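re: ur question from the group chat, yeah i did fold both. here u go
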Amino acid sequence: MSAREAIAKARRIVVKAGSSSLTTPQGAIDANRIDALVDVLAARRAEGAEIVFVSSGAIAAGLGPLGLTRRPRDLATQQAAASVGQGLLFARYTSSFARYGATVGQVLLTADDMIRRTHHRNAQRTLEQLITLGILPIVNENDTVATDEIRFGDNDRLAALVAHLIRADALVLLSDVDALYTGDPRRPGVRRITDVHGPGDLAEVELGGSGRVGTGGMVTKVEAARIAGIPVVLTNAASAAHALAGDEVGTLFHPADGRRLSTRDLWLAHATTGQGRLTLDAGAVDAVVLRRKSLLPAGVTGVEGDFAAGDPVDLCDPGGRVVARGLVHYDASEIPELMGRSTRWLARELGAEYEREIIHRDHLVVLTEQ
């Protein structure tokens, strides 16, 4: 079965719409665009598919009521616009889906919900239960409480993580352009990319900036496709029905090797941010990356950051390149005393509780290959 056929027959699909697909040229929410997109989603749902919809647009929906003509730059005003706009946006979706007798449920997530394992599992259970109950989940980042330090920054990455969270079969990213191009499609000589099988197909692509009311750009969509690990179509909202039908529209990102990371590994690799860094010697890098072993104190040569036991930390090779990430068993302040020591020595000198690895292999994901 081809990737296009897999999308056409997908049972569970995540569809993401950016702000530019939902707004007028002035940046206000466009009711006609929303209704047209809901028509497409409702039709696919009537065919038996389970749909999870990731929608941007909360900040854009709040611009008009706040008397703003453009997206604010400061975080406080963005959060105020999201606070006003999220309710308006969801009310619009509720009304539009009600035309088809469909009930929708709002799920607002922050990056912290993905970083913290218990929150991650709660989000997973909530989405699964909504789907089981026949509710169509509408997911957005919780912009009212997200901070610059901890946020998705765009809904492309959020959509890819949600796709993993619910074990979706396909992901459709709707943008203000109909496909991925080698550069600005308005320039002469620019070529459309129809299929992406790997990094080589992106060699000529210029990944540029953000849209007029959103925060994403092509680079975030390419990254989302890489994270997803399932067939991904990038196109515009006008082509949504064709994309879901498996037609030759947009750009199709093929899964790299058909192998999907476990939810735990995806969470560690893409939903967490290293709270510190541990530098490893060459032997430890080889053990962690090639032999998939736990990280022992003897292989650690340096520590940076202020983290606590249970936090995700980045593991670096002697040259400073991040090669893995894992959940550490010790506070940052404890590690200097442990570095270079065997676990047997630590148990004898410091107590039996120190006879353990710094990061167990079950709590570690490799981010590169040697």
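okk and heres the other one u asked abt
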Amino acid sequence: MVVLYGYDVVKEALIDQADDFSGRGILPLFRRLFKGTGILTSNGETWKQLRRFALTTLRDFGMGKRSIEERIQEETNFLVERIRNTHEKPFNPGEFLTHAVSNIICSIVFGDRFDYEDKKFLTLINLLEENTKYQSAIQTQLYNFFPTLMDFLPGPHQKMLKNVHEVDKFILEIVAKHQETWDSGCPRDFIDAFLNKMHQEEGNGHSVFTIESLTRSTLDLFLAGTGTTSTTLRHALLILHKYPKIQEKVQKEIDHVIGRDRSPCMADRSQMPYTDAVIHEVQRFIDFLPLNAPHAVIKDTKFRNYFIPKDTMIFPLLTPLLHDSREFPNPEKFDPGHFLNENGTFKKSDFFMPFSAGKRICAGEGLARMELFIFLTSILQNFTLKPVVDHKDIDIAPLITSAANNMPRPYEVSFVPR
């Protein structure tokens, strides 16, 4: 294993030598869970074709276009209404945010959103949340060191495997329904588009487009599209209700640019540098995936006078970039000024890589950015976040889990209508 520490070395590897470092390092647990057939954990030609297909299809179904924006706006209306029905009673917004964010990827992948009370939907979300907890267990971590032994021992890692199997069954049911009603001339969603591709490649014995790679790719998109954005929003609300002045400043910008009578849209973002800076600072500060997803070199590689053998696992650390004190003075402090010029305009930073960089950059980056902006501005357009404890007692430091994700501490907050 090789660890890359610092902006210069990470940029050199992931951007300047992007092809060499474009492999996915597969930990034994992920090999067992995902079998190397989806977008996230595949390599070589399989990965290239599945990723290219996913990006094209997401674009066709509106990623970066109008239709997906409308879906997010529609879902935001459901979320705002649901929050309104809490009648200012303090609660942990995590579940509401997870359901709303998950529905966006569901509408793209499965063709429809789920009702918040839908039993199958709730079961699915519960399985994912259980797995997030199981990831942190010591037995799960040990699996990566002693996979053969751990296969025979009981523990949370076995429950995790069982849960993924349940999610697989759920996806296969949806795929079967799609196959019954499939019309090649009118694809409704990602699954239909994938079935079209399978149909086109029917005579190709080496095609990477199979039912297995369909279920795995669907699972990858569902997992990635549910957890990271909803967790980032949970962090954002925790931070904003600790700092009422920052919240107030965002709300002033929302009132000035958008007002109270229409839904926020992506065209507003360019006129809202402070809000944009706050969202960037949330992502920088929380450092959601400190270790990054593991990469691998796809061939024997010469790098900075070192020889790295083919298939060596590479960890390009994100924390040293997002918390670099030369780029972000006082990196441990939450400060939207890290992304603002002196005249108040938005300031870009090459060190800002929460989605990683290079060939393996997150395929859903555009979708995630859209969701973060529209969900957060819509919530603050309609509500003021009121803490249930003194501001000084709110701890916004992320909880570091052994699953290598930084999670927000549990909290409750009141949403007061504006």
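fwiw on the second one: The chain has 15 helices and ten strands. The chain has one domain: 2-417. idk if thats what u expected
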